[in-house]
Each structure stands twice: as structure tokens, then as C-alpha cells.
Amino acid sequence: MEPVADAEGFSAPRLGEMELRAERAREYHGVLVRQVVRMLCCGLVHGDLAAYDVLVGSDGPVVMDFPQVVSAGGNNAARTMLLRDVNNLAAYLGRWAPGLLDTWYGEEMWALFQAGELRPDTELSGEFTPDESGVDLDSIRQSINDAREEVLIRQQGREAAAEDWNLMEAPTRPGLRISRPRAGIARLPVASHRPGPCPVRSCRCAGGGSTRRPARPARTCRASVRLARP
Hints:
Blueprint: H1 22-41, E1 44-45, E2 54-57, E3 60-63, E4 70-71, H2 78-93, H3 105-114, H4 137-169, E5 176-177, E6 190-191, H5 222-228
Helix pairs in contact: 1-2, 1-3, 2-3
């Protein structure tokens, strides 16, 4: 940052503290509008530009106080702020040059910015014709209805997928186990098997007196074979 001084080397006064002639007011207005255009070409809007945010140095007016600067493309209120900044300058300088009150520099530069045609050296005329064409309400309603239908279709798809998943997780009857599918392969229900204990409680085979799977079938147990003999 550099200090802004007047022609005599003292601190530059604020624009809001000065009395101007009509010619000087129009000159300062042109300089300030050009600075606003350059900021807008960089994608920035001052956001709170007024006469007391401008210092008048030996080389002309200089804009200051940028803490509230906003993005022209990322802030929904950027257009409103830009028009307010430009109108504040026109309203103050229009006290000495009333012709500035009938200009539309803010609207003109914003329209060029939206069209991608605004350049730092673009010559502005201060004239602007607002678009007064009618709004196609039918198209707007159709777009809203299409968006609602798309949301409903997605919601129904999520609910159907959740229901299918719950059916796969829940058992259909006691003793039936359903395995979770992997890699898109559906598996059929597999009945769980629990072999019964050996019929002889005193038998020392792997299945004797327990409900665990025996190491060998109960029919090969010698005790059970002897019981089966007549």
C-alpha cells in the first residue's frame, strides 16, 4: 500500500468532503466508473462504494476500503451490490452534474459482464434498455414438475432397494439361514444342520452326550452297534 496525497503532499481528502464543479464531477465520475469496470473484469464487486470510500489524490480519485468485496460470479447479490455502488457515485456527483442521474452505467456493465464481453477498456455509453419481455410461466412450471418427478423416482428406487435388502437379511423360517450375496451372485437359502448327540450317554466317542458335530457318525460307534444287535 502507498499513501495517497494531494498536490501539496498532504493526506488526500475524501470525495465526500469536497465541493466540485460540474466539469470536475463528470471527470471524477468517469474515472471511478472505469475503476469499477476493472474490478468487475477481475470478478470483484466493491460492495459498499460511496463518496467517503474515495480519496482524491494528485492523480485523481482512488477507491479504498475493500474488506467487504464480494465475488461477482459467486455471490447471488453481486448485481445488486454493483448497481448500488455505481448509483451511489452517480447520486453524489450528480449534485454538481445532474446529467449523471439519468445514466445506466451499472446495468450496462453488468449486462456486458454476463455476456462475457466486458473488458477493462470497454467504452460505456451509460445507456441501457431493460428486457421487458414476458416470462414463460408454462416452461417454468414444466421444469419444476420434471424436477419433482425425478426426485420421486429416485426416492422410490432407494425404498425398493432397501426393501429388497431387508428381505435378504430376514430368515424365512426357523432353522433356515440366508447368506448375504457377494459380487452380484445370488445364493439360495441353505438349511443349517446340527447333528444330534450319540444315543449312549456313557459313550466316549466325539458325539457322546453333546450336541456338537461328532468326529465320526453315530452309526459307527461300537456302543450303539451293540445296542442295535438283537
